[in-house]
Design a protein that fits this description.
- The complex is a heterodimer.
- In chain A, about 30% of the residues lie in helices and about 20% in strands.
- Chain A has 15 helices and 19 strands.
- In chain A, the strands form four sheets. In chain A, strands 7, 8, 9, 11, 15, 16, 18 and 19 form an eight-stranded mixed beta sheet that branches. Chain A has a seven-stranded mixed beta sheet with strand order 1-2-3-4-5-13-12, with helices on both faces.
- In chain A, helix 4 packs antiparallel against helix 10, helix 5 crosses helix 10 and helix 7 runs antiparallel to helix 9.
- Chain B is globular, with a radius of gyration of 16 Å.
- The termini of chain B are far apart.
- Classes of the chains: A alpha+beta, B alpha+beta.
- At the A-B interface, helix 7, helix 9, helix 12 and helix 14 of A face helix 2 and strand 9 of B.
Chain lengths: ~500, ~160
């Protein structure tokens, strides 16, 4: 470590001392903020570090002050300001002495990514792309207040909360083998519907199978040979290149998860007084993990996490139906296997050298390496797939986790490209209709519920995802497998 | 313009109502990069509630494009005025999801009785219709980040950050 090293000639959005550990790891020592229990570490190239907003530095050091935090408060290269924790934040807390915080999970519990492969090629899809996008847009509701086609009563919704994607398979929304390709097999234990409020249920019960809006999307993508970085691993995941078509989904637990987070932020504000916990930011409200409040939130959060797995599973069913309709073959005949589904807003109990820890990942993805005993057989040799979504104009990446991530970052890595421009500024820079036309000229068909919402998601409002991916690849916490280029996008 | 508050005969309650809107609001670019933030200025308490309500309605959809086929009477109470506004805005988000609607208007009154603030509102709108309505952002919730309701001299100010 260099003393005050590495950043002397760099212009950073912080007055704190930031020490260079390697070219991709930067550390803020505990001396930089009163109350820091561990150092903060940021994964970034020098260029990305300089582009990070002040919130990243303030918030990752606030997280380093939370009771029971272990080793480091971490921020990934796609990090930017968030509520309480920065987006891209990772923090692990001792299960006995540490806390759990909704601010470390994010409002959209188990917001995550899903990737579905096909045997189709660009040449086969291009002539029917317009029809395919219309069919997908019709079958996967998106945007403000959109409800899904799955009708549930409270009893059935309780089963969704406890069974997650398993419930979907039982109902015929997917194939049994899908489950092995979902984090936690699409069903996290410990979900307890009695810990969820009626308000949360009211918001979620009609939303299964819906995309939402904001930065959520469904994207038809193409994988060309020259964008496969690790052909052996890619082939093991069913990615063969040759202009192969894949489908990516980015969404979460919708209003349900948000209500769970909001409900427990209120509970935790009161609980903190009772447990004598002080935090640097109201949105870091937390409770001891072993306290009744902490356990109640964990049980409710797991309900939301399972609902998000179910949401993406129902959407997958609809995607398969849409492809089958347009191409006149069954989804199985089209080879529409699930590559993987992974959460990037979640808290989970995992075992590390320190013992059992509650690992918070907020805008960060689990990235277990080949040696991880938790991985199913299909991934034991290659590591867990990691899916990172870029902006709708620039493309996305498939990566795999590494054993180094397990050692260095509590088995965590980046999740996307990270915003650099406000929504209002993006809307001032381009109109939705104009952007839609520009993208069409570049071969990307966009179907959007809201034109203003589309403008807000323009590619220039985000960091270059390739730079972000390069950082985690160089740092060794994830390895690049393939780049996925968009040809069709559905937005809320 | 008739200014609130006025005392209701015999009841001893103070009723604040908005007969003519005197508020302004602006969206703020400088906070919550990935979300939507707004600041409301109002001449009176009902103005600030009406202004914050209008801002969130406009964030969801253009109210002028929304019909009035759905209606819900809502009453909320809280000892703390700031909490009352927060809960009211959260209630709007709740009904958006629970009923699958967006909103045209939400006339409201705010009253104070025995130290308890009460909001009575009529939330008016229509089921989401992607063909007829100009839909905007799907607000997921009201956050506590920079959240504030305060009186500056004769004016009221509220800052609200929405998670979208």
């Amino acid at each position: 470590m260099e003393s005050n090293g590495g950043t002397r000639r760099m212009k950073l959005n912080t007055d704190m001392k930031v020490n260079r550990i390697t070219n991709e790891i930067w550390e803020i020592p505990t001396s930089e903020k009163s109350g820091m229990l561990v150092p903060a570490r940021i994964y970034a190239t020098p260029t990305i570090l300089q582009s990070m907003d002040r919130g990243v530095f303030d918030q990752v050091t606030n997280v380093a002050c939370l009771p029971g935090i272990q080793r480091y408060a971490l921020c990934m290269p796609d990090g930017h300001w968030g509520y309480g924790f920065p987006i891209g934040g990772v923090a692990a807390f001792d299960v006995q002495d540490g806390v759990i915080s909704p601010g470390g999970v994010g409002y959209d519990v188990n917001c995550g990514m899903r990737l579905i492969r096909t045997d189709l090629t660009l040449d086969e899809v291009q002539p029917r792309l317009e029809r395919l996008m219309i069919e997908l847009f019709r079958r996967v509701p998106a945007g403000v207040g959109a409800g899904g086609f799955v009708r549930l009563d409270r009893e059935a919704f309780d089963r969704v909360m406890t069974k997650g994607a398993r419930w979907c398979i039982e109902q015929g929304y997917g194939w049994h083998r899908d489950l092995a390709h979902i984090e936690e097999h699409g069903c996290i234990g410990g979900a307890e519907p009695s810990k969820v409020t009626d308000h949360a249920v009211g918001r979620g019960i009609n939303q299964l199978g819906t995309l939402g809006s904001g930065n959520h999307y469904l994207e038809v993508q193409v994988v060309s040979n020259d964008r496969i970085f690790d052909p052996v691993t890619a082939a093991a995941l069913g990615i063969i290149g040759q202009d192969q078509i894949v489908v990516m989904v980015h969404c979460g637990s919708r209003g349900f998860g948000h209500q769970v987070a909001s409900d427990y932020l209120k509970v935790f504000e009161k609980a903190m007084r009772r447990y004598g916990i002080a935090v640097k930011d109201q949105q870091l409200a937390c409770a001891p993990f072993r306290s009744p409040e902490g356990q109640d939130y964990f049980a409710a959060m797991n309900c939301a996490a399972n609902t998000a797995f179910a949401n993406r599973q129902v959407i997958t069913h609809q995607i398969r139906e849409a492809f089958a309709t347009v191409f006149g073959k069954s989804a199985e005949e089209l080879g529409m296997e699930l590559v993987y589904d992974v959460a990037h807003n979640i808290a989970k109990v995992e075992r590390y050298s320190e013992g059992e820890l509650v690992v918070h990942r907020k805008g960060a993805t689990r990235a277990f390496g080949p040696g991880s005993p938790e991985l199913p057989q299909d991934f034991k040799k290659i590591g867990q797939p990691v899916i990172c979504g870029g902006s709708m104009e620039t493309g996305s990446y498939l990566l795999v986790g590494t054993d180094q991530a397990v050692r260095d970052t509590f088995g965590s890595t980046m999740h996307g490209s990270g915003r650099t421009m406000s929504r209002a500024q993006a809307k001032k820079s381009v109109r939705g209709e104009q952007l839609q036309q520009q993208m069409k000229q570049r071969g990307i068909l966009v179907k959007a519920v809201s034109m203003s919402g589309l403008a807000e998601e323009a590619g220039f409002a985000y960091k270059n995802i390739s730079d972000v991916v390069e950082t985690v690849d160089l740092a060794g916490i994830t390895k690049k497998v393939a780049e996925l280029r968009p040809i069709g996008n559905i937005k809320g | 313009m008739i200014l609130a508050p006025f005392r209701l005969q015999r009841s001893g309650r103070f009723l604040f109502t908005c007969f003519s809107m005197a508020f302004t609001y602006r969206y703020r670019d400088d906070v919550a990069l990935a979300d939507v933030a707004f600041e409301v200025l109002g001449d009176s308490l009902p103005d600030i509630f009406a202004g914050a309500t209008q801002a969130i309605l406009e964030t969801l959809a253009n109210p002028a494009t929304v019909g009035a086929s759905w209606e819900r009477a809502i009453t909320l109470s809280d000892q703390d005025l700031s909490n009352l506004l927060f809960e009211w805005l959260s209630e709007i988000v709740y009904w958006k999801d629970a009923a699958g609607v967006v909103f045209r208007e939400a006339p409201l009154t705010v009253s104070l009785s025995s130290g308890i603030w009460t909001l009575q509102a009529r939330l008016v709108g229509a089921p989401v219709d992607q063909q007829r309505q100009e839909l905007r952002n799907d607000v997921k919730g009201i956050t506590k980040h920079l959240y504030e309701l305060k009186q500056d001299g004769n004016r009221w100010r509220a800052t609200v950050v929405l998670d979208v």
